[in-house]
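Deliverable D5.2: sample structural annotation.
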Amino acid sequence: MNVAELVRHPAQLIHVETVRFSAEKKSQTVSREFNVEASTEGESIDENTGKSHIRIKVYNDDFWVEEEKVGVFQFEDKSMDPQTAVRFMEVQGLRILWSYVREDLYSITAKMLEVPVMLPTIDVMQTVEKAK
C-alpha cells in the first residue's frame, strides 16, 4: 500500500507518561506461563482534552510486574460530550497505550528474567465487547 496522504484522527495523543511501575522476582527459575490483568479508565479534562489510564499486571508464582500509564488526548472536535469522551478514552487507552506498556514490560523483564514477557497482541474491538 502506498500512502499518498495521512489523514489525522480528530483526537490526537499529545503526551504519554508512566505514573507507576512495580516489579518483583521471587525465584531464580521463572515459569514462562503468566497471567495478565488489565483495566482502562477515561477522564474528561475539559471540552478539548481527555486522559486515558491503562493499568497492567503480569504475574505468576515466580514474579509480578505492574505498570500504569497515562495518555493525554486533545480533541479537534470540541462538541464531544463528556460521557462520550470518557468512553473514547477507555477504548483508546486500550488500543493505543497497550503498545507502550507492551514495549516497557518486554524491555524491563528482559533485564529481570531469562525469558522476557511479551504481552500478546490483542483484538481491541473483541476485547472491548467482552469487557465488563
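Annotation notes: The longest strand covers residues 11-25. The CA atoms of residues 102 and 119 lie 6 Å apart.
The annotation will be released with the project's public dataset once the embargo ends.
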